[in-house]
Amino acid sequence: MPLIDLRSDTITRPTQAMRQAMFEAPVGDDVYGEDPTIRQLEERAAALLGQQAALFCASGSLANLLGVWLLVPRGGELLCDSQAHVVRAEAGAHAALHGVQTRTWTSRRGLADPTDVIPLLAEPTPHLVSVAAVELENSHNFGGGTIQPVEAVAAIAAACRQRGMGLHLDGARLANAAVACHRPLADWGREATTVTLCLSKGLGAPVGTILASSPDRIARARQQRKRLGGGWRQAGVLAAAGLHALDHHIDRLAHDHANARLIRQTVQERAPQAVTDPCQTNIVILRTAPGQAERVARLARQQGVLVSQLDSATLRVVTHLDVTAGQCAEAADILADLLAAEPVPAADQADQADQTDALVAAPAVDRRATDQV
Ligand SMILES: Cc1ncc(COP(=O)(O)O)c(C=O)c1O
Predict the structure, then answer these.
(1) How many Cα atoms sit within 13 Å of 15 on the Cβ side?
(2) What single-letter DSSP state applies at residue 74?
(3) Residues with CB under 6 A from ligand 1
(4) So what's the pLDDT on residue 344?
(5) Residue 82's closest CA among 36, 120, 56?
(6) What's the rounded Cα separation, in Å, for the pair 217 and 42?
(7) Helix axis angle, 16-24 relative to 236-248, nearest 10°?
(8) What's the whole-model pTM score?
(9) Looking at domain 14-248, which of 3.30.450.70, 3.30.70.660, 2.60.40.4070, 3.40.640.10 is its CATH number?
(10) Chain segment 91-112, per-residue pLDDT in tens
(11) DSSP letter at 239?
């Protein structure tokens, strides 16, 4: 029984066409700045993100580490959401490696409200640690793939600029937000001081993330990447996958979004108590009875569906180009049955009306990979 793997879009694997592009890629030594394919990717990605320069990095965590390092001196403070990837899921790297202190605000589904964030931008005093930068994440992973409105990002960015503070935008899934809103990535990217874009998630490249910013910041980041052991040689074969992803895998994200809505809708019809969160991109949040998430995930796995668990009563389902609409429908039925069998918790019924789906339903693309994990 092939598994339908909806744990994360990080599991996507290169298509045949992408492998061909990788095979044919001209390469050189990137430490000498001689890899033409990396050059091309960095120039292309910088423009896409509304920035002047970019650096190809081995992972989203490394790109975040460098982006925050550029903005926050040792002992300085980064303000971010309590559910942000930089504080929840990067092994404490920012503090451990760069002496960054973080202070967090609590948001609703990861969405940054300027009226909550801007008052936190305290001016430095002799004894208060000085805020050096704010970090936003778009779309927001643990918030359920939610989209930061451009206006909110612009307002927070302006407040930071006025105070000489930086804004780091973790754009691991920025392409999802852009496709969902029918807007260019640069509408968010140009507001940031430093911004990332993962190529290895929904975009389907095997490895890599872009960090974009000004030429002098990127030059500094390139040196720090070397210090951290992240300088690479003929990585053009990987950059070629990134270029292929930018050429062929951005618009099709709308299919992943349609598949995510399909799953949410199917579960909502049969287990409405499990669906209290909107679905704006390729992530669906499902609520179980208290303490039951692990059991439901285990039962789903026994039926060939893999989902991830965010906490003891929350499951996360992520669609991507390695699962078809047919597989998503199959998985939705299995999850709906399991959740319908759950005792009904005191769900926040009002939330069920908070449907912010503004996407245009698109026909699903058949792209099932047979040999899943
Ligand atoms: C929002 C966000 N930022 C950064 C990362 C880190 O990316 P990587 O796994 O490539 O280090 C992830 C990983 O899932 C993520 O979801």
Answers:
(1) 18
(2) T
(3) 10, 59-61, 64, 85, 137, 141, 170, 172, 198, 200, 209
(4) 59
(5) 120
(6) 14
(7) 140
(8) 0.92
(9) 3.40.640.10
(10) 999 999 999 999 999 999 999 9
(11) H
